[in-house]
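Curious: why these numbers?
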Amino acid sequence: MPTEILMPALSPTMEEGTLAKWLVKEGDTVNSGDILAEIETDKATMEFEAVDEGTIGKILIEEGSEGVKVNTPIAVLLEEGESADDIETSSAPAPSEEKPAPAPAADEKPEPGPQQAAAAATPATPAPAAPEAADGSRIFATPLARRIAANKGLDLTQIKGSGPHGRIVKADVEGAKAAPAEKAAPAAAEAPAAKADAVAMPASPGAEQVKKMYEGRDYEEVKLDGMRKTVASRLTEAKQTIPHFYLRRDIKLDALLKFRSQLNKQLEGRGVKLSVNDFIIKASALALQSVPDANAVWAGDRILKLTPSDVAVAVAIEGGLFTPVLKDAEMKSLSALSAEMKDLAGRARNKKLAPHEYVGGSFAISNLGMYGIDNFDAVINPPHGAILAVGAGVKKPVVGADGELTVATVMSVTLSVDHRVIDGALGAELLQAIVENLENPMVMLA
């Protein structure tokens, strides 16, 4: 039997992807390990290798196709002795328990359901947006789904499809309910306009409703790529499900800046230039060792305490961000951390990181100081227990130890903490350890 080649999950968070480019064509012979295609995941563009040998009998998904669900058949591989005649049988969908009824003839129209009847009787009442084509050709739905929707009086434009490319299938319409018909008592035209608007507009408007709000205004519609969809989904989930609390401290940087300048002069011959961010990574890694109970992640029904300090660092790229992880950061020198961070950040911006390079860690750092941001609150990246938001170092008047007013370079940081993992006192202890390391940088070399 011909073998279906399925859309692979090339990253832990990938649910769908874009088949960016086919590197083979129908009739080509491939061996295990040959590159078949380039696939854009939620994080990067990656090469997809063949795991079997054979001949590409049919390409099912064209290159450039977006939103291809994981495990969707994308091509058919023929083994020795098989031909294209076998493909129709092997790749045909399995029969369902209930046979779809034949689609109505072209000249037959289903009786309008309650919702459509109400809309026809009361044209002044705002109704769901109708498809652009009168025959509904722009609504992607199976014939059985259309028939069930017509019988139940459902408006297909208000139903989100779960099939390939958003196609509406039987399961989508079986669980949906038709909107109740309008009561006959006052006519819709007599109802106050504000009330009609309240009924028509849901609490959280969808894409078409938002676009309708801005009809007549100039705007550019930007399609979401896999990365932006994942960022939106994960951060929404994080803010809704993680009980964040925030701890704030000011850190005096003058000793660190002086020490950094001395080290960079000594390292100049090796082509090494340390950044303040390198010190922050090291300080955080050592602090997680000093406060081991805070070096932890949330695992659904338990907490996992990590032994090494695996520190993730947010890297802004076009269309989103990566959080590459510096593993065993507490054991690495400042120059080693600096070189590794430069390498990871460079490959992140080119979307060339492998999943194992940005998955994991217990703690993250997000630094917006280079953009002149004084302070901000970062969103925790699950399952991390905390994230440190770093602002710019700014010269400010401070009261010295002797009570005299002086000027110092001060950096504001905010520690966002998952209260399920780290309690207030423990979070304060962790932040204090980070502050001490940065204000006394020589201790990080001990």
